[in-house]
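Morning!

As promised:
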Amino acid sequence: MKVSTGIEGLDRMLKGGLIPNKTYLISGGPGSGKTTLATHFLIEGARNGENVMYVTLEESAEEIKEEMKLLGFDFDNYSVKFIDSSPTGENTLFGDMFFIDLVPDIRGFKDALEEKIKESKPSRIVIDPLTMLELASKSEIIYRRDLLYLIRALRELKITTLITTEKRNGCPEEYVVSGIVELLEFEIEGKIIRGIRVKKMRGSDFDDTIRPYRLTSRGIEVYPEAKIFE
Amino acid sequence: MFYSGIKQLDELLGEIEEGRIVLIETVGGLGIEVAMSFVKDALKRDCDVFVVVSGGKERDIKRLLEKWMNRVKILKSGESFTFQELYTISLITSKRKEKFGLIEILQPLLIVHDLQKVYSLFMEMTENLRKNGITVVFTIDKKLVEDRVLAMFEDESDIVVEIEEVIEGLKIRRGIRIKKSPNMSPSEFYDFKIDKDGIHIGDKVV
């Protein structure tokens, strides 16, 4: 049984949704809607009565809640556990050390996160974005290895995870996740045209055509029957 | 069945079945009246109609179709679609309940976008419209496209009506012909005039 992303058009592109207990990458530039997509995903779980968790590593939990409220997503109405590991957040995952010393790295993050997961037992997690953790790794090889440990741990804990990143095309995360959804932008005559593409989805059929989407006052709308013509 | 609403043109064209794509090749703005005649005729036959236009043309459409506005759905740029987002045009035309339409936006699209994209959009729209049994009139300005391009759009259309204008010294001659039709043979050019009394199609041009 697939897991709905909370976005009908994207679920159709994914032929029903995401395969549960796997980790997926959401990549896109600034303002492309990664956080909004992640929010759709978690709210969908919360509406179904699931325990869900939002780990934020850049924007504070308060900032995210305020922004999403403007789109009609009121996190206070749902049972969503926030782990605020942002530089300006009050309750960091690692206390004060993480952003001062850039330690621990992903291993440390994984261990700290596992503790939180044991408390809350979420079935869905968002990690937004992963970029900050890459900075903490000593090398790309170590980063990839530790990322694999993290993803394996999440799979064993039976959690469907979305990770966001601003990086594209050949970044290490692309090789280790089960699926990739890309948020793309094209500029035509001064207007930004947005396209969403499922670049990879192991174990499942999917629509790999770039489809248009819009950021509306109700979140993301994907048009799975339309073509982007770009 | 649909008709142009112009007696002599209907004699040349015959009946237009549901789900047909009609392309009217205009010269600048000359010939838009022919397209509007098709629309008015559909309205007179109690058919609901949709019109896809750039925002600036809405007022003209409303003036020309004033008597029937309760049965006309105007889809204008900036509101129902944007010229930059081609998919919005495909989406609005794929969801029509009306059985007749006029799409008058090929010109601005060809200015904004590459030909290939506009042609892809045209093919997608015509496929959907035919599938849904909707008869649509498209207009295209011959001055804006090369012959090769025109041929591509003609190929995708079922019926092609061509307007031509020739200036000989200080004399202007205008003509109209059926260039392509599934039910009738292509015709010669006929004299074509528009005045305050309407559209007049005269004798064959010798």
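The first strand of chain B starts at residue 21 and ends at 26.

Hope this helps with the figure draft.
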